[in-house]
Design goal:
Blueprint lengths: L2 H31 L8 H25 L6 E2 L5 H23 L2 H4 L9 H35 L21 E5 L1 H30 L6 H24 L13 H29 L10 H36 L10 E6 L6
Parallel strand pairs: 1-2
Antiparallel strand pairs: 2-3
Keywords: Membrane, Transmembrane, Transmembrane helix
Length: about 350
């Protein structure tokens, strides 16, 4: 099996475990939060950190996976050094987080109180979060070691190209030097896609469980529908982001610019609408049968997602507008980002 294939498997496992950890830690935090008998609040902090870093882990693993097999591209992320350092950092952080979360089990796994089942649930979820954290640490260490070993014979991890030297690819006839603008657009479009999917997860849940005190149901329904449009269209823009030789209308600067401007405007309005509902969803003075904190959390999450989508769309619009200066509105969005195409002959003997 080729090294590039083994790396693809290891990166894919890291990505999958990162998503699982994000979900598990995300569910663990509310169970621990609702345990009124907790005297130690570190577990809540550690679980929140695990959830946040899990999101960063799988997103970064997806980025590294995208640059795992690009022998004809000159970019910092095609270097073995970038991948090696990334997985060393993931290894150390997940080792620390796993130990921190598991150290809270004696406090979380207490059954001497009648807590309506929260204790057993929070105990199981916390243990799972800690275990997956240590598993991610071990997987990251294994991946870093594999990158180090496969790069050692081709100049070492500090100088080797990940998919050309380490995989033994000979006679690379040309290299494409790209502008960082393509990568910035990829990052913005990918985050818009992810946050759009997040809106389609949180929105329907809020439709079911919100307080129905004002217009939250209507706003969540509209956001869910537009969230679907957002992430589908973002995936289309992502697919046509790097086609410098295509004449398709979806590769034009104007198509990308007006799309993200529309996203930015609509999500800004949606964010303001959700923010206006916070005073109703976070009203703890009215009877809520203990659900006010849940309503408030969902309202805050939807508000944050909407404003984040608006901000990301604004950043993408600014990047695309800067690209437009090189060739006008009808030019290819990636045409000016290909800096150089040159021959590089490698002796295979």
């Amino acid at each position: 099996m080729q090294p590039v294939t083994i790396r693809r498997i290891l990166y894919g496992l890291t990505l999958a475990l990162g998503i699982c950890q994000c979900v598990i830690a995300g569910f663990s935090a509310p169970f621990v939060l609702f345990d009124d008998f907790q005297t130690n609040h570190y577990d809540r902090i550690f679980l929140s950190l695990a959830c946040a870093f899990a999101g960063a882990t799988w997103i970064w693993a997806a980025v590294l996976l995208a640059y795992n097999d690009r022998p004809q591209v000159i970019h910092p992320l095609t270097k073995a050094k970038a991948h090696f350092i990334s997985f060393i950092v993931l290894d150390l952080i997940w080792l620390a987080l796993g130990i921190m979360v598991l150290s809270q089990l004696p406090d979380v796994c207490r059954y001497q109180f009648d807590d309506q089942g929260y204790n057993s649930s929070s105990c199981a979820l916390t243990a799972t979060t800690g275990g997956v954290g240590l598993l991610l640490s071990a997987l990251s260490a294994l991946t870093a070691f594999f990158i180090y070993r496969t790069s050692r014979l081709y100049g070492g991890v500090s100088t080797a190209d990940l998919a050309s030297s380490a995989d033994g690819v000979d006679n690379i006839r040309h290299k494409i030097v790209r502008s960082s603008a393509i990568d910035w657009r990829i990052a913005c479009y990918s985050l818009i896609l992810i946050f759009g999917i997040g809106m389609d997860i949180v929105g329907p849940l809020d439709i079911v469980i919100n307080s129905e005190r004002h217009f939250m149901t209507q706003f969540s329904s509209v956001a869910t529908a537009f969230g679907l449009i957002t992430w589908i269209w973002a995936s289309v823009l992502l697919a046509y982001n790097e086609r410098p030789r295509s004449s398709n209308i979806l590769t034009r600067v104007s198509a990308h610019f007006y799309s993200v401007v529309a996203f930015g405007a609509v999500w800004l309005v949606m964010g303001i609408m959700f923010a206006s509902e916070t005073k109703y969803e976070c009203n703890f003075s009215e009877f809520s049968d203990g659900l006010a904190s849940t309503w408030c959390a969902f309202s805050g999450t939807l508000t944050a997602l909407a404003f984040s989508l608006s901000l990301l769309s604004g950043i993408a619009a600014a990047l695309i507008y800067d690209t437009k200066k090189a060739g006008g509105w009808k030019s290819n969005v990636a045409q000016s980002d290909i800096i150089e195409l040159y021959e590089e002959h490698v002796d295979s003997t």
